[in-house]
Amino acid sequence: MAIGATIYKANLNLSNLNTHHYADFNLTVARHPSESETRMMCRLVAFLHAAHDDLELTKGISSNDEPDLWQRHLTGEVVHWIELGLPDEKRIRQACGRAEKVSIYTYHDNKADIWLAKHKASLAANSKVKVFHIQTASDSALEPLLQKTMDISCIIEDEQMHLSDAHSHLTIEVKARI
Length: 178
Prior knowledge:
With 178 residues, the protein is an alpha/beta fold. The chain has one domain (10-176): Roll (Restriction endonuclease-like alpha-beta roll fold), CATH 3.10.640.10. Helices cover 22% and strands 41% of the residues. Strands 2-1-8-9-10-7-6-5-4-3 form a ten-stranded mixed beta sheet, with helices on both faces.
């Protein structure tokens, strides 16, 4: 029998001082069996960083036709395609062909640097694409916030993101790379 997704509830309170976006989001997050806890938490970080009332979590890692997050018009047309990790050029072209705007969030320092060096010229030439890097103290830095039901407050100021719950507080950076 196949292992199913693990379901998490995330109640997120956002105060983005850069864009003056203040909102509460109640999300149900499905973590695919092949997705690490760190990657799932990075999806939430990307969600908070790109927050919009119409932004949605998708099937993500379990689908080749959808990004990790997206924002769509009421017509179903994709406004913002958000990838997490180190997508290949084919995946980036697919995203650019289907969306008005594409954001890529990387999160493994050394791998992200190598990936960016390889793709920087083609990414910089495409005005639709922006690349951000989620900088944490370690790969497991976000895991103290991980619970089956999460209540997380987030304050974004400049490139810093302050995340806290009843037991933990941490500061990470989300840096624009392109």
